[in-house]
Amino acid sequence: MAEVDYKSPIYLQLREVVRNKIEEGEYAPGTAIPSENELSELYGVNRLTVRNALDALVSEGLLVRIQGKGAFVVGDRIERDLDSLSGFRQTMNDRNASPEAKILAKTRRKAGRKYARIFGIGEDDDIFYIRRLNSANGEPVSVEHTYIPASKVPKLDGIDLGVFSLYEVYGFYGLNPVRAYETLDLVSLEARDARMLDVEPGQVVMLLTCYTYDENDDVIEYTCGYNRVDKCSFTVHNRA
Amino acid sequence: MKRKHEMSSRDYATELIESYIQDAGLKPDDRLPSERDMCAMWDLNRTTLRNAIQRLIDTGLLYSRTGSGTFVAKPKFVRDLKDVYGFSEAVRLAGRVPGSRMISAELREADKYISRHLHVPLGTKVFGLRRVRLIDGIPAGVETAYVNVKLCPGIENHDYEHESLFDVLHLDYGIKIISGDEKLSVTTLDSVEAELLGKEEGHPAIYKSGYTVDADGEPVDCYRTVALSEYVRYATEMTAR
Question: Which CATH superfamily is domain A89-235 in?
Answer without folding.
Answer: Chorismate lyase-like (3.40.1410.10)
